[in-house]
Amino acid sequence: MKASMIPDIVVGRLPVYLRALQQMAQENRQVTSSQELGERLGISAAQIRKDLSQFGEFGKQGTGYQIQYLLEQIREILKVDRVWEIAVVGAGDIGSAVARYGGFANRGFTVRMIFDNNAAIIGKRVGNFVVQDTAGMIPVIQNSGIKIAMIAVPANEAQEVADQLVQAGIKAILNYAPLSLNLPAHVHVQYIDPVIHLQRMTYYLE
Amino acid sequence: MKASMIPDIVVGRLPVYLRALQQMAQENRQVTSSQELGERLGISAAQIRKDLSQFGEFGKQGTGYQIQYLLEQIREILKVDRVWEIAVVGAGDIGSAVARYGGFANRGFTVRMIFDNNAAIIGKRVGNFVVQDTAGMIPVIQNSGIKIAMIAVPANEAQEVADQLVQAGIKAILNYAPLSLNLPAHVHVQYIDPVIHLQRMTYYLE
């Protein structure tokens, strides 16, 4: 099946499968099944088999999936069989936490630089980085060839930062600011806003 | 339509509509339309009308939606017309950033307490809170009546923390640890893992 034909909702489950497979590999497991994966993830085994079958034949009837093989295949499909560099914009609490986060290693990403527009923060260290001035961000990102950015600035600054990132050649944005961004169709965006997740749960609470 | 009949994917879009409406209200806007909302959010107007119609009649043909009225209705539907208290477990970078986060105000949530199991951190201040010992967490949460928790501990500690939170009466968990939790059916869970979002985008990059 052509990549463009596969629904985004299916693509969105592959990283969850990959995370579970990497965890199993760390537990020195060799083989798993759609049943076991499904129990770990709260997804039906049939759904997992159907999702994976859209990308190829990864297991044999009755013998399950070779964990190492399947995780390498998914890493290749998701293009995280390499390391993508990330620019972080905003060196407040959230930007700093992301810049110092140890959880990117072995999952395809590394933070490479961090920017802020606050004179009191520019030049200070955050983890392994010296905070750079957002004012000079566009050429720095262009020259670096970085294609992925995270926005961790206040909501009222986020759209302007996003516009600058697009100018700088960024193709994918993970936005921590609590608003929807207006972006050209060729730029991918994902959102992290804890309140959105919390409100989705309170609906169901007494 | 009965609450239990509405698909979770529809429920999951209401917080996004609410966030956009609150932003419009801050801009002193009075009226909006499904077209305008759709353009802001990158969702079709038809989808927005269909989603909202599952919960009631909120607008009149040709006159659009009264912003203040619609946002109050959605706040009531999502049960964020009140303030929910939150317990944060893990006072590392992410837990501390969440505990200090100013973005919960006016959106239905407030952090009330934070826990950690690291003796070097217990008793220290994080924002307005003194970090409490995770070892005493269960009765403290039980006595508080708090129903919502965030987990921001290392992946290998997260399941044990989740089990303790369930014992403490927690009904909804926002999990920042990068793994899927095994929880009883009556406990709601949502996940925040930046790598999952990033991998969903690299799939589409050259």
Architecture overview:
Two copies of one chain form a homodimer. Chain A has helices spanning 8-26, 34-41, 45-53, 67-77, 93-100, 137-144, 155-167, 194-202; strands at residues 31-32, 59-60, 64-66, 84-89, 109-116, 125-126, 129-130, 132-133, 148-151, 172-175, 188-191. By secondary structure, chain A is α/β, with parallel strands linked by helices. In chain A, the strands form three sheets. Chain A has a six-stranded parallel beta sheet with strand order 8-5-4-9-10-11, with helices on both faces. In chain A, strands 1-3-2 form a three-stranded antiparallel beta sheet. In chain A, strands 6-7 form a two-stranded antiparallel sheet. In chain A, α1 packs antiparallel against α4 and α2 crosses α3 (45-53). The first copy, chain A, is elongated and about 60 Å long. At the A-B interface, α1, α5, β11 and α8 of A face α1, α5, β11 and α8 of B.
Primary descriptors:
8 helices, elongated, six-stranded parallel β-sheet, 11 strands, three-stranded antiparallel β-sheet, alpha/beta, 206 residues, homodimer, 41% helix
* Average residue pLDDT of chain A: 94
Low-confidence stretches of chain A: none
Distance between the termini of chain A: 44 Å
For the sheet with most strands of chain A, the description reads: 6 strands, parallel
> What's the oligomerization state?
homodimer
Measured by residues with Cβ under 8 Å of the partner chain's Cβ, the largest interface is: A-B, 62 and 61 residues
**How many individual β-strands of chain A?**
11
What's the overall geometry of chain A?
Answer: elongated
Beta-strand share of residues of chain A: 15-25%
- Secondary structural class of chain A: alpha/beta
Major sheet strand order of chain A: 8-5-4-9-10-11
Helical run tally of chain A: 8
As a whole number of angstroms, the C-alpha radius of gyration of chain A is: 19 Å
Helix content of chain A: 40-55%
- Series of H and E elements of chain A: HEHHEEHEHEEEEHEHEEH
